[in-house]
Structure formats: C-alpha cells, structure tokens
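About this split. The held-out portion is used to measure sequence recovery: a designer receives only the structure tokens and must propose an amino acid at every position. Recovery is the fraction of positions where the proposal matches the reference. Here is one held-out target exactly as it appears in the evaluation file.
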C-alpha cells in the first residue's frame, strides 16, 4: 500500500510554512499503540482500530499539531498523544 497523503486543516498566518513533519495519533499507555483510521468526520462517527507499530504506509498523518488535536476531539479521546516524525 502506498503512503497516504498528509492532511493539514489549518495554517496560521505568521507561522512558518508546513514542512515535511508529520504527526500520528497514539495512545498514552506504557506500550504505545497507534490509531488507524480514515480521515475523521466532523460528526465523530469514524471507526478506528489500533496497530502496534508506526507503519507510515497504513497510518494517516496530520501535517500539524492543530490537525492532530482536531482528530482527537472528533474521536472523543480524553487521553492521547502524537508522535512527530
């Protein structure tokens, strides 16, 4: 499977342009797992599962922290982190 494109919802004026940095949603447990999903809908109905390794060919990357945070909200996550690559 080919790597999926990076999604960025916001770019605040004055901040440097988005680069090649990607953010992946992950759990906050001692053994980190990654959230596997298609782009989350704003209605919060997007199903997700977990994978145990950072497989960039399967995971959907966010282009900035704000987008990763928006996805976490859409999933209703109360505890999450992101991994920056």
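Reference sequence for scoring:
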């Amino acid at each position: 499977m080919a790597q999926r494109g990076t999604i960025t919802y916001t770019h605040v004026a004055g901040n440097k342009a988005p680069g090649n940095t990607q953010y992946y949603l992950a759990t906050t447990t001692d053994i980190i797992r990654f959230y596997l999903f298609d782009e989350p809908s704003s209605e919060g109905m997007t199903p997700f599962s977990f994978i145990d390794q950072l497989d960039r060919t399967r995971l959907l990357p966010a282009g900035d922290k704000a987008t990763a945070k928006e996805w976490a909200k859409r999933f209703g996550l109360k505890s999450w982190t992101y991994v920056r690559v």
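Annotator remark: Residues 33 and 52 are 5 Å apart (CA to CA).
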